[in-house]
């Protein structure tokens, strides 16, 4: 059932046998199954040099030495219904689960374009369509939906959506709909320049034996999957495939799987990349208790895949399924491609594993001697030979996005109507005259859209609405508010995904720092700070949040000394410290200047900064509500400088006091402008002002006020600031659950009081234990994930 059941790793005798085999492979020998199995047992320090040398040879031959590639994509989960029952999968739902989750049977064209257009604006060129296998053959609800909307099959709908995406955005589709027959491959070829389906394994035991991972899944028959890959080659389709490591297969199975794929590529030359993917156990699956793929075995399989396929195959690994510290080992093992990485959408198949930031992936790649370059969904060799590999209907579209090397050009995809490359006829014209008009046609036809239609427009194009439109959404009530919240929740679902996240943290209010020693409640000294941090780490916290201006009689160097003291107590803890107002105090009183203060904070150990210390970006409101806060221009200057210095931050809006709807919208618009400039905001937190409770709509209940604010925040910031955090300390856990269905995806932190001076945290007495957050997520039928401050996977 997992790598734990595989026979123990047996290293053959070192010396001539393995060394000679590796030398032969380096000289061009293609290992058979027996030899591949032997190589899978070989020591990594013998495999890596040969695998790396072959990779480098192939890249040089391709004309891009020392270049690793990735595709900038959006992930579109077209339907999560499936007729299969794989024991490791959390992607699929039943119709009953869809109803409880308020998810559609299939994503509508409007919902698809909402996501894809946001990806287009971020420079994505690939739309990955992933879905369950043939759901209409198991679920009457799927058949009924297809019949109602005029589609003969799920594949028919995939083809329609692919045409729509390319016509409306200029992006290219990579179709991944599972098992396909030859006529279905032919249907998709004119709308999808590449396709894919993982072989996973050739093991018939895993398919035929009760209790194994593929038992009861008709589309996981290895012979059937090999035939699909063969048929794709016969059809001249650039095809992505690969294997899964750690699902219960034996080492022999891995060897057979790799060689079987090579034989198919030998026949047709159509396999554009081989993915070697490691199993990661997921909650709520039959394999939730199985161990993850053994890292040594995984690295060996990656390296041996390179040895089996040789220099010219692209070997891909998913970077989000490995710890960032392991990416260097994967590069050493001979990979040359990271696959699709999204700046917008979650990995809906592995929702517990967020994508790395593309800039971070580029930095990791560069740290190991390689340059990261963007490619299209079809790899460069197939783009450059488009006459053979890509349907003529897509040639102009591919040329518009490709550079001279066949990699991705530095352009934003464009629809025909936006001046993109295309013709009057062909699939674009066919689409626009079809019985399924595009959402943009619906929008144009409505001169006075209702709130639901307005919300759908907002989700698709946030900057296309004017302030009056946004104000109307903020003031929604009753059924219109329900519709607004539902659209916002869909925008959340199809971008950041289903997980509800939480960081284990503790607050430390720096206003209470006393260098000479504490004398009263809420105070602490440097030794206390060290003890507090050690205690927090012992409780499981990965973050200490420090904010609050020091008293005027405290030397400003105290800001830095407190951070150093925290790092002494918990060297690995993430320090999230100092608002723009606090940084300004350090800069001015410490004589460092703003840039100098930020550099000193970095040297002291600050990792990220809070974007708090402002209620709303309006001088009128500041003068009335918080005249002691930093002036708005100085706050903007401070947070922008922090971002430019390499610090990511939160962002906030306090509402429910004297502000107008227009001022809320102006605040959100200004945050988007800052984000466009710096990309420094990780999250947004809409916070009810304590004691405010002034609704925008007279008589509107506080819960509805919060729902409208969260929903509008999600829609306005979608594609810009990814995460909307629900301030459970201000609204309570019950209301937080409702707001997580209005576009929210994060609960902030546990806010541990700790056992050492619990009164030194600003929200002392309010804790959200991990178990309580898990229960809340379960009540919403959504997965729960512990995160780090910067939204990575929290360490175990």
List the helices and strands and how they pair.
Layout: H1 16-26, H2 33-40, H3 44-61, E1 67-79, H4 95-101, H5 109-121, E2 126-131, H6 140-149, H7 154-169, E3 172-176, H8 182-188, E4 194-196, H9 205-208, H10 222-234, E5 239-245, H11 251-268, E6 271-278, H12 295-309, E7 315-316, H13 327-332, E8 337-341, H14 358-367, E9 371-375, H15 380-384, H16 386-389, H17 395-401, H18 426-432, H19 439-445, H20 451-460, H21 467-474, H22 478-493, E10 500-503, E11 505-509, H23 526-538, E12 543-547, H24 558-569, E13 574-577, H25 580-589, H26 593-604, H27 619-625, H28 632-644, E14 649-655, H29 661-678, E15 681-688, H30 702-717, E16 723-724, H31 728-731, H32 733-739, E17 746-749, H33 770-779, E18 784-786
Parallel strand pairs: 1-2, 1-8, 1-9, 2-3, 3-4, 4-5, 5-6, 6-7, 10-17, 10-18, 11-12, 12-13, 14-15, 15-16
Structure description:
- The chain has 796 residues and is of the alpha/beta class.
- Helices cover 43% and strands 12% of the residues.
- It contains 33 helices and 18 strands.
- Strands 1, 2, 3, 4, 5, 6, 7, 8 and 9 form a 9-stranded parallel β-sheet that branches.
- Helix 10 packs parallel to helix 11 and helix 20 packs across helix 21.
- The longest helix has 18 residues.
- It is globular, with a radius of gyration of 27 Å.
- The protein starts with 15 loop residues before the first helix and ends in a 10-residue tail after the last strand.
- The N terminus is likely disordered.
